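Title: Prediction job returns without error message
Component: structure pipeline
Severity: low
Priority: P3
Assignee: unassigned

Description:
Job completed but the reporter wants confirmation the result is attached to the right record. Sequence as submitted:
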Amino acid sequence: MNIIWLGHSGFRMEIEDAAILIDPWLTGNPMFPQERRAEAVNGATHILITHGHNDHTGDALAIAKELSIPVAGIYDLISYWEGRENIAGIGFNKGGTVDLGGARVSMVNACHSSSLTGKDGPVYAGHESGYMIAGEGHVIYVSGDTDIMADMGWMGDLHDPDIGILSAGGYFTMDMQRAAYAARKFFNFKTVIPSHYKTFPLLEQSAEALKSALPGVNVIEPVVLEPIAL
């Protein structure tokens, strides 16, 4: 299994028979080298969206149309896109599980907000979400944009993820210390990968606080387009 950071909150996850692009914001992403776009999207089989904000959905529709691949995510947003954008969608909801190329993807709660940018202001885009992705002997918790929440207790108990991809940049989401608290209190991760950081000056620029707060956990600071093999 390979987990490949696309900058900000975007990841390419190669698991089972799937190559899933999670929250692919490439165009305009200051962390992403635009000349390597083809490398990032080549062979992708699915797109998975955590919520509607542009820094998570930015290139989803363009890639879906270019590669003729489905977009999975919360029912409200996916249904809206299916009706207006002529894409293939996999719309489901919290508590639901779908099969994406052999990977079992369960939608779980997150604590944030979700909207699209409309001409007259924000447009409702369903609720924000996270995912538990099971395959190749691993369960990966993709937190999406979130703060700490009590739901993490049952999520950790029921799904028992060994890998956490945690929003940790602060300001809009948990910061490094809050992400570390959540990891210690609710989960038993072997590996943690921070996300939603470094992109802009107001976000945290280093994961050192996360590393120091999680002794015994393999905290990996990802490098854009450099595969993490697990």
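Comment from assignee: result matches the submitted record. The two ends are 6 Å apart (CA to CA).
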